[in-house]
Amino acid sequence: MDTHETAHQPNEALINTYWKLVTIDGAPVVTHENFREAHVVLHQEASRLAGATGCNTLMGSYQVENERIAFGQIASTKIACPTPQMKNERDFLAALKQATAWSVDGAMLVLSGNNSEPLAVFEAVHLY
Predict the structure, then answer these.
(1) Which residue numbers delimit the DUF306 domain (predicted)?
(2) Angle CA(100)–CA(21)–CA(11) in degrees, nearest 5?
């Protein structure tokens, strides 16, 4: 048996991957029953962002250049949710606005700000 074999997965693609939000500002994100999990998909077509905040649906645009990323014109539906979801939503939208860099390691995507501190961490989810 070869013990030097590492189980490192190839990196998931940034674009056209369903990214489920797992931590925001270092705190784990809990998906509550009857709510869509917080996630984003960066669609290649028209550099369109789609997803959900854990409360509302989210849409917008993004620009990627090498390891840099910028999100623009982010909008969300305006349904009121219980306080924990609203806090997650606020933090999630703030993280997207502040994000300037991205990195993918295996199935994990990290968005970070100007100080290189992770703002939000996502995990790739394969829907089929």
Answers:
(1) 12-123
(2) 70
